[in-house]
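Sequence in, structure out. Go.
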Amino acid sequence: MKLESTLPSRTAPLYTAPLLDVILLLLIFFLLGSGFILKSGVAVTLPYSESSLPVAERSHIVTIVPGETERFFFNETRVTREELDARLGESTGQTRQVILLADQRVPYGTVMDVSGLILGHGYDLAYATGAAPAAP
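Output:
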């Protein structure tokens, strides 16, 4: 006596479920992975340097943008110099590192003034630079 199955044949839906799982996992991986890249929301032209530092995670970002009067940003929030001093004082418990992004057109005195302010609060300071242009 030959036994026959009474179940319907399900070939297509059986193979699409794992495929959809893999696509969903790849989508989540790339969406979350791109969020870990350190970028400031303010565009500046960084000076060039041959040296580089290791990538710093969880650090504050102070940005100086040139203009008639320099604009200061603390973690992408625009602040005055006095507010920057206050924010640096408030944020000492979160992380001990600050990355300074200063446009190459910002006067050297302003960069050193902000550097002294950051170091005065006891932070470790790193200057952000761009990669040196390729030689022709």
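Check: Strands lie at 48-49, 60-65, 71-74, 77-79, 97-102, 124-127, 130-131. The mean pLDDT is 79.
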